[in-house]
Specification:
- This protein has 437 residues and is of the alpha/beta class.
- The protein is built from eleven helices and 21 strands.
- It has two domains: 329 residues, Rossmann fold (3-Layer(aba) Sandwich), CATH 3.40.50; 98 residues, ANL, C-terminal domain (GMP Synthetase, Chain A, domain 3).
- Helices cover 31% and strands 23% of the residues.
- Helix 8 runs parallel beside helix 9.
- The chain is globular and about 75 Å long.
- The termini are far apart.
- The structure holds 5'-O-[hydroxy(phenylacetyl)phosphoryl]adenosine (DLL).
- 5'-O-[hydroxy(phenylacetyl)phosphoryl]adenosine (DLL) binds next to helix 6, strand 7, strand 8 and strand 12.
């Protein structure tokens, strides 16, 4: 039998020297800016407003001269205003969920789909996927990019694709078992739910054929990674992306599991100060901005993601030279400002999981008589669950203390019975901010 093939480790690009990569990015950027200027009146107007022309962009070092694109621009230009190709050359759309306003519709040419699937295929490969693997794609299919990106990538790698989409947990487990799925793709919160359900069915890591999971689309903590890895007996890899930039696969984790390599031959990452727009030096925390170098139908130049993150060029043991982004801490628009203090749901998650609680929680923010309050509802594990009120109270107190140390403000904690908090099959909704209602 032929040996397993790992055809999507694209060493030429993934291990490219810095100078060579800058040269490649510069050539692509110059061409992309010219193309966008000539074909997208909306972006041309933005450049003219800032007094920049394509002649000012000679290399990647000139990137900072270009105007940012924001979600507000995408809404203003909805649906066709940023299209850079005739519609007849487009073959597909995807769309964001629109939970924070009007949907964004992203358009793809066939070449856009091909490059996107290449990026996802690199992610599969970095998680050890070959043509002998069985890849179960349990992200939602449809307008969401989570399903079809890894699906196309799995085809490219030549593995057996199981397109279950999200939901129907019993059936998911049946396919994992019956087809001996080795790689699972879904959101981390759905992975945690599947892990919990398998445990309840009495399955131990030895009974679970999976060896790796590729989880993304939402912020998740190291502690949650650890829990999922233990329960399923797998390695859990992070993957990042957004609809505007094609979908998952903008960056992905390798065997080192310490940040996600950005596919820099296709995307240039910058970190900016979200207040001033100034580009920050490597290692500083700020808002992630991406420029897509190859996208044809829906080009994004200096797109502000609103994700809070850091970048690192520290040498990676996997041999890839692609810059790494840390796990995004959250989004500028997810950050809660409570009693004047910045609170990220991921900080709360870290405290809960460090104290042995499952990742089933909800954060309710409210304002009464001009005073903000945060209530964190946390599920107990079946082992913790008791009718001894004193015991529950002392557990609550301990959590309040630890959360105060992490956040700097007092939050209320309510411990609730196992299975009380709704499970998520896609992106979990952790925060209910009643102040906005
Ligand atoms: O969530 C694309 C995706 C699908 C990524 C499957 C990974 C896996 P959108 O629905 O447009 O696209 O949402 C994009 O989700 O700006 C981040 O805030 C968040 N996000 C995505 N991946 C991660 C991650 C998809 N690994 C928005 N960690 C982004 C933290 C993530 N946040």
């Amino acid at each position: 039998m032929a040996a397993a093939k790992q055809i999507y480790f694209q060493k030429k690009y993934e291990c490219m020297g810095r100078e060579e990569m800058k040269k490649l990015q510069s050539e692509k950027l110059v061409a992309q800016v010219k193309r966008v200027y000539e074909n997208v009146p909306y972006y041309k107007a933005k450049m003219m407003e800032d007094g920049v022309t394509p002649d000012d962009i000679k290399s990647i070092d000139d990137l900072y001269k270009l105007p940012f694109l924001s979600k507000a621009d995408l809404r203003e230009a909805y649906p066709y205003g940023l299209l850079a190709k005739p519609l007849k050359e487009c073959v597909r759309i995807h769309s964001t969920s629109g939970t924070t306003g009007k949907r964004v519709i992203a358009f793809y040419t066939q070449n856009d789909i091909d490059l996107w699937e290449d990026c996802c295929a690199r992610a599969l490969c970095a998680a050890g996927c070959t043509d002998e693997d069985v890849v179960q794609v349990s992200y939602g299919y449809g307008l969401f990019t989570g399903g079809l990106g890894p699906h196309g990538a799995s085809h490219k790698v030549g593995s057996l694709t199981v397109p279950t989409s999200s939901g129907n947990t019993e059936r998911q487990i049946m396919f994992i078992k019956d087809l001996s799925a080795t790689i699972l793709c879904c959101t981390p919160s759905y992975a945690a739910y599947l892990a919990e359900s398998m445990k309840e069915l009495g399955m131990t890591p030895d009974d679970i054929p999976l060896k790796a999971g590729i989880f993304g689309a939402e912020a998740w903590s190291e502690e949650m990674r650890h829990d999922i890895e233990q329960t399923m007996g797998i390695k859990a890899y992070d993957i990042y992306g957004l609809t505007e930039l094609s979908g998952p696969g903008v960056s992905f984790e390798c065997s080192e599991q310490s940040g996600m390599h950005v596919n820099e031959d296709h995307f240039v990452a910058e970190i900016i100060d979200p207040e001033t727009g100034e580009v920050l030096p490597e290692g500083e925390e700020g808002e992630l901005v991406f420029t897509a170098l190859d996208k044809e139908a829906f080009p994004m130049i200096r797109y502000r993601t609103r994700d809070i993150c850091t970048l690192s060029r520290k040498k990676c043991s996997c041999g890839r030279t692609l810059v790494k982004m840390a796990k995004p801490k959250g989004r500028t628009d997810d950050m809660l400002i409570v009693k004047g203090v910045n609170v990220f749901p991921s900080q709360i998650e870290t405290v809960l999981l460090n104290n042995g609680y499952p990742a089933n929680y909800q954060i309710v923010v409210d304002r009464k008589f001009n005073t903000d309050s945060i209530d964190v509802q946390v599920e107990m594990t079946p082992e913790m669950f008791t009718d001894n009120v004193g015991e529950i109270e002392s557990r609550q107190k301990a959590l309040v203390t630890d959360l105060k140390t992490m956040l700097g403000i007092k939050v209320n904690v309510s411990l609730v019975a196992p299975k009380t908090i709704e499970r998520s099959e896609g992106k979990a909704k952790r925060v209910i901010d009643k102040r906005k209602i």
